[in-house]
Every structure is written in structure tokens, then in C-alpha cells.
Amino acid sequence: METDVIIIGAGASGLLCAIEAGKRGRRVLVLDHANKAGKKILMSGGGRCNFTNYSIAAENYISSNPHFCKSALSRYSQWDFLDLVTRHRIPYHEREHGQLFCNDSAKDILGMLLTECQTAGVVVQLNTQISAVSQHLVGFELQTDHGVVNCQSLVVATGGLSIPKMGATPFGYQLAQQFGIPVIPTRAGLVPFTLQPDDKERFSVLSGIAVPCIASNQRQSFRENLLFTHRGLSGPVVLQLSSYWQAGETVQINLLPDVDLIAALKTQRQNQAKKSLKTLLESYLPKRLLGCLLPDAVLNTAMADVSDRQIQSVAEQLQQWLVKPNGTEGYRTAEVTLGGVDCNALSSKTMACNSLPNLYFIGEVVDVTGWLGGYNFQWAWSSGWCAGQYV
């Protein structure tokens, strides 16, 4: 069988690319090993799909080439995708930090993409295993369990390694290496931290408690909710910082970012001298959390007996709490994969390989990783759209 374009991967970037190529009159075949298209779309955002963000900038992305994403994001922006969503009359709403979610279900976004594919004459073939890819005359030849297919342009939209139970594989990276395209080492991103054994035992009783905080390392700082789990630390603030964290680093957490705790405790020492430190601190933080971070002897001290040095020490423990994660939960629960196909090997305008102009890489398989909040979907739409104009 022969076709103009084969796209490997029926996820966000692959389907958007297919739509655009199909609109140009190209014969497009999308292949995927899964039994359903867009599985990651369906599970994202708790089933509501955080499909983009009102505020998209290159600063929201991590890459060894931080300028690479700028062209695609400006040529197919969040407003362009919102136009498509609006045309399909999909109701959506904004949450904090400009995040946009479907009102009803992520199925609305997937349904929109598949409807657009159908309109553009795109063929989506699922349950298809690819055993070999080779250059062939003017394009590529793919050996599949459904037979041999040939194409002029090949687009790799295979995603990353995150959430293997959804079918993630290293196929895209292996394909890049087969054709001599460099790959930046990968690791899990937007992923919970695990704790050292002693800390895990100490904080496991806090599972389910969430508190707003600022979490920082030497390179980055985020202000979001922190969630204690039975395995370690999670919540948006940890997921965001995890993408900037390196093994062995210490994380600093400010559990009271809006409070001048030293001044507040000194004032309360004067005005409420008989009350215990614990009673006053419980107006700021959960009782169980305080019990894990501060010794009972200190917590039970009457304010009249709390020294300036103790106030300083309490403030440091609560506002400069230092945690050294044991690691992360890895690809099993990671939302994205950091690293991937080296941007320096690709055209930022077309997503084609500089050395092989009819081989394209788009979406998460590329070394562009967004923050939590719709940024990774926007990269999928933008990079898919760009390739779709040229394949």
C-alpha cells in the first residue's frame, strides 16, 4: 500500500498534524499500536482534559534549546486551538493560572479531532504493530503486522515514556537513533517525589493533607499546593518543581509564604502569653503537620516562655523546611518525559530533520517539555500544526 504521509501515533500531536495535512489534500494514514486513539487525551485533567492555557510563553517550557519552541507556539497559538474548540461548540472553563478544561469530558476534545480527521479524509488505523522502518526510494517503507506500507513523508508522534500502562514505549527515540538523529537523555517530569526511608515513615501519617506553599531549588520556584501522600510528596507544586530537580538535590519549602512568622509570634507572645505555641500555630497549619515538623516539647511551651531564638528556629523549620527527596515515582506516574529528540537536529519551522527532510518529529517525543497546566497539549497542537503544513 502507498500513501503520501504516515503518522506514527494517534495522540494529540499526531491527530492535529493529520488534520492539517489532510486539509492540504495529502493522503494521510495514522498508525497506532493501541486499541483506541488519544488515550492520554482521555485520561488527562482528571478526564476533563486541560487542553491549553490562556498564557503560553517559551518560559513555560524546558529544552536544551530554549528558543526552539517559539516559532511553533507563535504560528499556532492557544487562540488558534480555542477557535477550533469554539467552532465545535465544546463548553470549557478557566481554572487558576489560566488553565482551560472541558466542562463535560475529555471525550469532547478527542471527538473533535477524530471528526476533523474524518472530514479531512484521514485514515486512522489502530491495533497496528510496526516491526521495521527503512528508507525507500523517495520516502519510507514500514513493515507492519497488517502488511507493508510506503509513504513520502513520515511523522513520528509516538509520545514519551510516561505512564507505560497507557502504552508508552521508547519506539520514537529508537527510530531517531536508527536514522542518526541525536536524542537528549530522558527522565520523568511532572512527577511526585519519594522520600528517604526515615522521612517517609515520619510523614506517612500526613497522607491526604494539602497546604499552599512555595517550593524552590536553586534554579526554580513555584507557588502551588503541596500534597502529602503515603509514598512521599505530590501536588501541583511538587510536580512543577520535579521537572527542574536533579537527583541528590535538596528542596526548600515555605509552608507559610504570606506570613511574617517571626513578627507574628513576637506579637502573640506579648498579647497571648499564656497560650501555648501549638495553639497559635494551629491557626496557620494542620495540627498533624506541626506535630511532624516540631518537637512536642517546643509546641507545648507557653508563649511567655518562648525565646527569640526558639521563634527564629520555628520560623526556619516552617518557612525554610529542607527536604532531600529520595527520588521520584518515575515514568509510572509521570505526566511527561523530559529530554527526547534533539531540537538542534530539527527545523523549528517544519519539525523536519535537517539531515532527512521527509522525516518529522512532533509532540512529546521532542526535547520540549511544558509546565503543568495545559502547556504540553499546546506544544502538541503547535508542533503538529507546523508539521502538517509541510508533510
Which features would summarize this protein structure in a list?
21 strands; 391 residues; Elongation Factor Tu (Ef-tu), domain 3; FAD/NAD(P)-binding domain
What does this protein look like?
By secondary structure, this protein is an alpha+beta fold. It folds into 2 domains: 2-187 and 338-388, 3-Layer(bba) Sandwich (FAD/NAD(P)-binding domain), CATH 3.50.50; 192-328, Elongation Factor Tu (Ef-tu), domain 3, CATH 2.40.30. The protein is 31% helix and 25% strand. The protein has 14 helices and 21 strands. Strands 1, 2, 7, 8, 9, 10 and 20 form a 7-stranded mixed β-sheet that branches. The chain has a 7-stranded antiparallel β-sheet with strand order 17-16-13-14-15-12-18. Helix 1 links the parallel strand 1 (2-8) and strand 2. Helix 9 crosses helix 13. It is elongated, with a radius of gyration of 25 Å. The two termini are 18 Å apart. The mean pLDDT is 96.
